[in-house]
Amino acid sequence: MPAARSSSRQHQHHLSVRDQLSVTEYGELVAHSMEETIKIPFAIRSGGHSPSPFAANIDNGVLIDMSNFNHTQYFPHKNVATVGAGGRWLGVYNELDRYNVTVVGGRVVDVGVGGLILGCGLSYLSDLYGLTCDNVVNFEMVLANGSITNANANHNQDLFQAMKGGANNFGIVTTFTLKTYSINQVWGGIKSYSLDQLPALFTAMQEYQSNPKKDLYANLMLQAFTTNASVGAVLNMVYLKPVVNASAFTPFYSIPTTGDTTKIQSLTQMMSGQRVPPLPRWDWFATSFKPTASLYQKIEDIVTKAPELAAIQSTAGGSLAIGVQPINTNLIQAGNNQRGNSLGLQNVNQTWFVLDAGWIQADSDAMVHNATRALNARIEDASRAEGVYEPYQFMNDASWDQDVISRYGVEGQRNMRQVQRKYDPDMVFQKLVSGGWKLPK
User: Fold this and answer.
1) 336, 339, 375, 387 - which has most CB atoms within 10 Å?
2) DSSP state, 102?
3) 124 in Cβ contact with 172 (< 8 Å)
4) Contact 97, 147 (CB under 8 A)
């Protein structure tokens, strides 16, 4: 979701490894960690955006900080760029802007490269080219035995597919090779609305998603801060060409705004203008469904009137934001056309919905988590009642106790277990790396 979030768990008592180690030295570190007499727990951090406990931090173990793997290099003759796993998307985009190209990357420029890609990655380019993970040409990575390998369409093909949605279950990625695309100048920005326009925005979203000839250059995300009327709702929108007021967004144009930053600008500038809520603790929940007008009406009622909102608001700084992310079938087909991923997505138009809860004090963690989970359950009950529930949970937006990988389907899970047995037979990344979303047992 395009809103920067800090970890809701501030863990201490770890040894941080962030010096200028080579890939080989990282391999030696992993091999040393798994020695029978040591078995040192460890965590891997790219940008540290995820609040999932131990996903990017650890108590009483080794934190492998990848931030020095922050290079970006463009290869115009191959239309690819190599990107370090510890970089942040702003640095990637700024380098590629020099050549008027970009990659299918994160929508929040301060997010780390590694976590976003390994969680699948949703981009403003995704309707055209698929998820970020679908646009990886090569993973350079350290395996559990400390060896360095590459996974791509010609080498370790089974690992290559498993990594697309595989999180931190198979190794430590040091460098991604990504496809590049000739996109630079776009029309886009943020339209702001009062909260009483939320029903109209949901109606417009349904119309936008129902277009049988959806313009793939148009992309957007709706956010509404339902506990804070002074903030209201925002529509992050972009047309991936320098075309003002593209007809793809017609359903939204008649809704009165309180602010509008849309203009011709670079895609990097457009993404850099997005809001960053200043709260220190965050948790969020993901769900998916096929959109209908009646379901959007029910969701609007839930996120503005459900009793759980009072519980969240009763905490210091307690806030709730929703995110509505329309997913077109072309996104799914683009992934299938690029040798597939592990996600098991149904090839239907769908919405990836996220609840973001923010607050200030650690003693409110459990209360806010449970209230947000209950809200998510209400939305899932409503989508099931309409027969439009989709089991997929977008990992980059999922809470730490959502069983994300079990939603990939039987075949995807079976293939990932086979890859685990082949490349990590001692289950190092299952047992010693406790954070993040693990393969179901």
Assistant:
1) 375
2) B
3) no
4) no
User: In the numeric block, which tokens belong to residue 158?
Assistant: 């089974």
CB contact at 8 A, 397 and 309: no
Cβ contacts of 224 within 8 Å, gap of 6 or more = 195, 198, 201, 232, 233, 234, 303, 321, 322
Distances (CA, A) of 238 to 190, 212, 244: 9, 19, 10
- β-bridge partners, 65: 45
- Tell me the pLDDT tens digit for each residue of 186-213: 999 999 999 999 999 999 999 999 999 9
Q: Can you give the pLDDT at residue 191? A: 98
Contact 174, 228 (CB under 8 A): no
> Which long-range contacts does 65-74 make (Cβ < 8 Å, 24+ apart)?
65/16, 65/17, 65/18, 66/18, 66/112, 66/114, 66/172, 66/174, 67/18, 68/18, 68/19, 68/20, 68/21, 69/174, 69/175, 71/175, 72/96, 74/98, 74/99, 74/101, 74/180
Burial code (b: 16+ CB inside 10 Å, e: under 16) for 341-377 equals bbbbbeeebbbbbbbbbbbeeeebbebbbebbbebbe
Residues, the chain, total?
441
pLDDT per residue over 392-413, tens digit each? 999 999 999 999 999 998 999 9
How far is the C-alpha of 298 from the C-alpha of 389, rounded, in Å? 14
pLDDT recorded at residue 52: 76
Strand segments (E) across 118-227: 136-142, 148-152, 172-179, 185-193, 218-224
The stretches in the chain having pLDDT less than 70 are 1-22, 25-38, 276
Helix, coil or strand: residue 363: helix
Give CA separation, 281 vs 5, 119, 358, in Å: 7, 20, 6
Residue in the structure block whose two tokens are 């809200």: 375
pLDDT given at position 441: 81
CA 101 to chain centre: 22
The phi and psi torsions of 285 (rounded to 5 degrees) equal -130, 145
How many Cα atoms occupy the beta-carbon half-sphere of 103 within 13 Å? 35
What pLDDT does 339 receive? Answer: 76
Which one-letter DSSP state was computed for residue 440?
A: P
The DSSP code for 228 is -
**pLDDT of amino acid 16:** 53
The structure tokens listed for 418 are 């086979």
Cβ–Cβ < 8 Å for 201, 297 = no
